[in-house]
């Protein structure tokens, strides 16, 4: 049959690939991470556990591809003072800064035993004496006391606020 104008195929622009995230500026991210670790030292924190997306993104530069609306507290990021290391709850490295080795990612799980094993395997977590958190659930509080039995659990709001204080020499992160 003869093609009619309404049968014409129209090429639409292809959207960018799902999961493609902007590149994290390493120098800026490193300066922010240094500020977070300095604030941890001032507060005498051995470990900082972050669960709020804004806190994780600020402290590590990691960008999440999605969040499923509201959700309970989960240990999305663990910062250890000694040895200084950053660990993220992720199953892939898209959006993860290059300074965070793939081996420092721990998988997403709803199984508390699996999550506990992942956290217990982080060097410095079980030995922590002061463990800061940006949010807390009763389940994580119990788990933290089991995983780091000698740790004092403290709110980390002041630590994050101190790290975010304006530094006139710091570039603005947009």
Structure description:
There is one protein chain. The chain has 174 residues and is of the alpha/beta class. The chain has five helices and six strands; from the N terminus they run H-E-H-E-E-E-H-E-H-E-H. The chain has helices spanning 26-42, 53-60, 112-120, 138-147, 157-164; strands at residues 47-50, 77-80, 85-89, 105-106, 130-133, 152-155. A six-stranded mixed β-sheet has the order 4-3-2-1-5-6. Strand 5, helix 4 (138-147) and strand 6 (152-155) form a beta-alpha-beta unit. Helix 1 (26-42) packs across helix 5. It is globular. The termini are far apart.
Written as H for each helix and E for each strand, in order along the chain, the element string is HEHEEEHEHEH
Q: Rg from C-alpha positions?
A: 20 Å
Helical run tally: 5
Structural class category: alpha/beta
Low-confidence stretches: 14-24
Q: Overall pLDDT, averaged? A: 81
The geometry reads as globular
Distance between the termini: 56 Å
Percent strand equals: 5-15%
* Oligomeric state of this protein: single chain
Number of strands: 6
Helix content: 25-40%
Largest sheet: 6 strands, mixed
Strand order of the largest sheet: 4-3-2-1-5-6
Salient structural properties:
globular, 30% helix, 174 residues, six-stranded mixed β-sheet, 5 helices
Summarize the structure.
By secondary structure, the chain is α/β, with parallel strands linked by helices.
Fold topology:
Elements: H1 26-42, E1 47-50, H2 53-60, E2 77-80, E3 85-89, E4 105-106, H3 112-120, E5 130-133, H4 138-147, E6 152-155, H5 157-164
Helix pairs in contact: 1-5
């Amino acid at each position: 049959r003869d093609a009619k104008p309404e049968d014409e195929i129209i090429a639409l622009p292809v959207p960018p690939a799902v999961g493609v995230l902007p590149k994290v500026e390493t120098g800026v991210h490193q300066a922010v991470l240094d500020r977070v670790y300095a604030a941890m030292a001032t507060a005498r924190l051995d470990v900082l556990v972050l669960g709020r997306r804004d806190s994780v993104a600020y402290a590590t530069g990691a960008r999440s591809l999605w969040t499923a609306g509201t959700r309970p507290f989960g240990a999305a990021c663990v910062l250890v003072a000694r040895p200084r290391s950053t660990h993220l709850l992720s199953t892939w490295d898209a959006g993860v800064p290059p300074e965070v080795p793939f081996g420092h990612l721990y998988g997403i799980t709803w199984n508390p035993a699996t999550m506990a094993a992942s956290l217990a395997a982080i060097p410095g977590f079980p030995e922590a004496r002061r463990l800061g958190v940006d949010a807390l659930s009763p389940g994580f509080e119990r788990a933290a006391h089991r995983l780091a039995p000698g740790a004092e659990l403290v709110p980390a709001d002041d630590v994050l606020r101190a790290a975010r204080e304006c530094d006139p020499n710091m570039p603005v992160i947009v």
